Amino acid sequence: MPDLQFDPGQTDWNLIRGFIAVVEQGSLTRAAEVLGLSQPTLSRQIAELEKALGTPLFERVARGLKLTAAGDRLVEPARHMMTAARALGMAAASQDNSLQGTVRITASEMVSAFVLPPLLCELARQHPEIQIEVVASNQVSNLLEREADIAIRMVRPVQSALIARHLTDWPIGMYGHRDYLASLPDKNQLAALPLMKQFRWLGMDQSDQYIAGFRDAGIQIDRHFFDFRCDNHLVNWQAILQGLGIGIAMRWLAERHEGLEQVLVDQPLPALPVWLTTHRELKSSKRIRTVFDFLADGLLEQRF
């Protein structure tokens, strides 16, 4: 049996963090994306940890990486180490009364691209001493693990350790470019066709978000309903603008583009709830509280 004794005091805690990320994600690629690292960097971290421990932690299998027996024994202690480190970091951050420093915000790709920039410009004018990091991702970052300080989410968080404010609801609709719509048959003919036969639809690839939304509206579809599929919302948005077909968009954004027209206006679609979230302890940090309150006011005051 290999000797797994090593000095954690001499070990970079990022190596432990990388190890746990690979365990939870099952692959270097996905873990690197979650951590915001390149795959080679994360691979070097795992190799460095394995060298410090004197034993391999993973073996390659057909669908990714599998823990070795030695790696499996390390998972629980490593998680305890990360929990203790996060608790220490959280406690330290909650005592920070300085505005100077960094606040990490996570939001969806669309919110990061179209909502945050004008707000952050004003924040920079008011508080130039605050640095901002934005995690533009549709994955729900874990505030409890300090993957971000503040999150703008379209779902209500359920963890009791989080503070969450429901700010507003954004109506959504089905939109297409007028050039695409002009290329279609006569509208009277369209009305007589089933929904899926009327238009070319733009949707998601791996995600079932749109499928679930259509089914909630009483329309039973599968992924083949969509003639174009991509999980990146920014790509889908550009596809709508270029006239590739009909896609789902936030009304406030679509209404800024004269070339877009809403279709199937009478078809009800659920609005997107907007939640602003942070950890309870982080709210006592002056810097994070300042950014949190600024975003709350900005999202309510501006026409989004």
UniProtKB/TrEMBL annotation:
This is LysR family transcriptional regulator. Pfam families: HTH_1, LysR_substrate. Gene3D superfamilies: 3.40.190.290, Winged helix-like DNA-binding domain superfamily/Winged helix DNA-binding domain. The keyword Glycosyltransferase does not apply. Belongs to the LysR transcriptional regulatory family. The keyword Nuclease does not apply. InterPro entries: LysR-type_TF_proteobact-type, LysR_HTH_N, LysR_subst-bd, WH-like_DNA-bd_sf, WH_DNA-bd_sf. Residues 11-68 form the HTH lysR-type domain. Keywords: DNA-binding, Transcription, Transcription regulation.
